[in-house]
Design goal:
eight-stranded antiparallel β-sheet, alpha+beta, Alpha-Beta Plaits, Elongation Factor Tu (Ef-tu), domain 3, six-stranded mixed β-sheet, single chain, 13 helices
């Protein structure tokens, strides 16, 4: 029999980075019997990726179905979704929230309300979810639960008198959390007799079973053997397996009904047929499409090209499979000149880009090279504005102005570090908006900044000047006119398109000089001098010269007439002059990597 709908609760855990989401989720799994007791030194079950374990962060949202026996004797089905905390993975949080009716808002008892605490709460509030405040890590000596309660009320405007005090590591307050989930989070309201509607909130690719859909059923029911219809792709499939995640896949003879969260296998082989946010319904009794998810707009672009033994076709297949599992990752083919054919990929931020590249290399056994990193620029020209994502797309003339993306960025910093943070932001063209105090010892600074000044290493610099206590969160606010220029890198008088970049005029010379110096160290010597130049239009702003190999052509001359030596030297000079005219310079892959590194260090 299907589980009664009034005994189902769908909820997720949201919090700032490292506030204990995944550890708390595991304690809930242990308490409800979904997993056995484990040694504290073992790794998280929900953070199953090698990258998640190495970095100690959650990258992908995970879903698990728990069976909880309440004090009233009823057995509740709790569908829990563990979510990431970093700003670059906010899209994962958004999708998880839309599959739930409520959430646990976890706040560290020592650090208090942080940047992503506020951002994630606002997402939950927009979707009108029930919020259960939970103060974690109360067992630490530096815990200050009473002050944190005041911060929650002041920053989030939600009552915190009855906030649950817990310690996921010590197992304190776990029963209180489970009771609060049943008491404060409403049951789903779907109609099991209505036409079937389910939303795909995630998907994975299995080499043996094809694409596996993770769905939240809103109305109706789906059972094994049913013919499901994907509305966006207009394709029909037979359900071969259906069930719940406990946390491993467990088949259900009754299938899934309205209000439940689970997986569907239907031998889907074509990657283009599945899109996260699509609506699943039955072919015989089709429901209307659901609203789906808001499309995310990439803020950072990077070129990915095959290298080593990896072929273009291997890279394309890997990118297609990866985009199925990460809906915020976008891509399109491009040609990188000397690098051959590859893909221009869009990401939500620097960490997102780094994680995506590592996942592609590990999960699909790829070898790639990263090239030019850049934000979106919009040029207001002739009849309409155009998006510029590569320097080559920037017209040399004929446009009135160039705009760059700007973000509203919120810094949460200790009160005694306000001055150093303000100086850091002002050096990066930040525009001050407002300042608020959260309690006696913490302050929130709000600035408007160009995205290009944020994406490189602002977060790392912030951690340095605040001794690790500062956090930040940003949201896209629009575009503003800026004095941006295209800087071309010329190798032996030939422009290298893959190394060109767009930046603000005030830093163009400095960045050009840093790139030229990096190239000089990586490009090997030739039989002729090689000139390296950084130029804005026709004006050269930086130059370095790679000296030629020096061969001693007069070594065989022992004494005698000096005119013979001069003749040999003149002959060598003419040969080098001719070689310089017809010779070509190959730029090794290591040079591209060095350029990217030099930009990150110099920014």
């Amino acid at each position: 029999m299907p589980h009664p709908q009034h005994l189902i609760r769908n909820f997720c855990i949201i919090a700032h980075i490292d506030h204990g989401k995944s550890t708390l989720a595991e304690r809930l799994l242990e308490r409800t019997g979904a997993m056995g007791q484990k040694d504290d030194k073992e790794l998280e079950v929900l953070d199953s990726m090698d990258l998640e374990r190495e970095r100690g962060i959650t990258i992908k949202a995970k879903s698990v179905c728990l069976a909880y026996k309440h004090d009233d004797g009823q057995t509740y089905q709790l569908n829990l979704i563990d979510t990431p905390g970093h700003v670059d993975f906010s899209y994962e949080v958004t999708r998880s929230l839309q599959a739930c009716e409520g959430c646990l808002l976890v706040v560290d008892a020592t650090q208090g309300v942080q940047a992503q605490t506020v951002a994630n709460y606002l997402l939950a509030d927009q979707l009108k979810l029930a919020v259960v405040p939970t103060i974690n890590k109360i067992d630490l000596p530096s815990a200050r639960p009473d002050e944190v309660k005041a911060e929650i009320e002041e920053s989030l405007a939600i009552p915190a008198d009855h906030a649950i005090l817990a310690s996921a590591k010590a197992g304190i307050g776990i029963d209180d959390i489970l009771r609060a989930v049943v008491r404060d989070i409403p049951a789903p309201k779907g109609d099991r007799a209505a036409p079937t509607q389910g939303i795909i909130f995630d998907a994975i690719y299995d080499d043996y079973r094809g694409i596996i859909l993770y769905v939240r059923l809103v109305n109706g029911a789906i059972r094994k053997g049913d013919k499901i219809h994907l509305i966006r792709s207009d394709r029909t499939y037979d359900v071969s397996d259906i069930g719940r995640l406990r946390p491993k896949m467990e088949s259900s003879a009754d299938g899934l009904t309205a209000g439940e969260v689970g997986y569907i296998c239907a031998a889907i082989k074509t990657l283009h047929d599945v899109k996260v946010g699509d609506t699943v319904t039955l072919e015989a009794n089709q429901g209307q499409p659901l609203p789906g998810f808001r499309e995310m707009k990439p803020m950072v672009y990077c070129g990915l090209y095959p290298s080593g033994e990896t072929t273009y076709d291997q890279l394309r297949e890997a990118v297609e499979k990866f985009s199925l599992n990460d809906a915020s990752f976008v891509w399109q083919p491009e040609s990188g000149g000397a690098l051959g054919h590859g893909f221009r990929c869009g990401f939500l931020g620097m960490l997102h880009m780094e994680i995506c590249q590592e996942r592609l290399e590990r999960e699909h056994d790829l070898d790639m090279v990263r090239v030019n990193l850049r934000g979106i620029m919009t040029a207001d020209g002739q009849p309409k504005s155009i998006d510029i994502t590569t320097p080559g797309e920037l017209p040399k003339d004929g446009y009135e102005s160039i705009e760059e993306p700007v973000v509203d960025i919120h810094f949460f910093v200790p009160a005694e570090r306000i001055g150093t943070v303000m100086q850091l932001v002002q050096d990066r063209r930040g525009q001050f908006l407002k300042q608020d105090y959260i309690g006696q010892h913490r302050c929130r600074l709000t600035y408007r900044m160009p995205l290009a000044e944020v994406i490189f290493d602002l977060f790392d610099k912030l951690k340095t000047v605040t001794q690790g206590y500062g956090t930040m969160d940003y949201e896209f606010s629009g575009y503003q006119v800026a004095d941006l220029v295209r800087v071309d890198i010329l190798v032996h008088n030939n422009p290298c398109d893959a190394l060109a970049f767009i930046c603000h005029r005030t830093v163009a010379e400095r960045r050009g000089r840093a790139i030229i110096k990096s190239l000089k160290e990586e490009i090997p010597k030739h039989l002729f001098e090689v000139a390296l130049q950084a130029a804005i239009g026709t004006r050269v702003v930086a130059r370095e010269t790679i000296k030629s190999y020096g061969k001693n052509v007069t070594a065989k001359c022992y004494g005698g007439d000096i005119s013979r030596k001069r003749k040999l030297l003149e002959k060598q000079k003419e040969g080098k002059k001719r070689m310089k005219m017809i010779g070509s310079v190959e730029v090794p892959q290591e040079a591209f990597m060095a350029v990217l590194k030099s930009r990150a260090e110099e920014a």
